[in-house]
Amino acid sequence: MTDKPESESARPKGLVEGEGVAWSVMSTLVTGPVLYGLIGWGIDALAGTSRVFTAVGVLVGFVLSFYIVYARHGRT
Predict the structure, then answer these.
(1) In whole angstroms, what separates CA 58 from the centre of its chain?
(2) Helices within the chain (DSSP H only)
(3) What CA–CA distance (Å, rounded) separates 10 from 56?
(4) Which residues of 16-30 are buried (b: 16+ CB within 10 A; e: fewer)?
(5) C-beta of residue 2 within 8 angstroms of C-beta of residue 34
(6) pTM value?
(7) 3-class secondary-structure state, position 52
(8) Which of 1, 10, 65, 72 could pair covalently with 32 via S-S, beta carbons 3.0-4.6 A apart?
(9) pLDDT tens over the chain, length 76 residues
(10) How far apart are alpha carbons 56 and 70 in whole angstroms?
């Protein structure tokens, strides 16, 4: 048996309190606009438009990313 409390031994080594949540939030906020921006860029390439759908994709990515962060971490 160890002298450490069970909650301390279950936590991965090297993570301070809340660091996992911070990484999750940051990766969600970065990935959303990048992913939807790339999808918009692909639509622009296929449709022959000049960066209209890229801008729309980035904006949709931001909105969805903020919503996902709020749904996962914003409510108490």
Answers:
(1) 13
(2) 6-10, 19-47, 52-69
(3) 42
(4) eeeeeeeeebeebee
(5) no
(6) 0.73
(7) helix
(8) 65
(9) 556 555 555 656 667 878 888 899 999 999 999 999 999 999 999 999 999 999 999 999 999 999 999 999 887 5
(10) 21
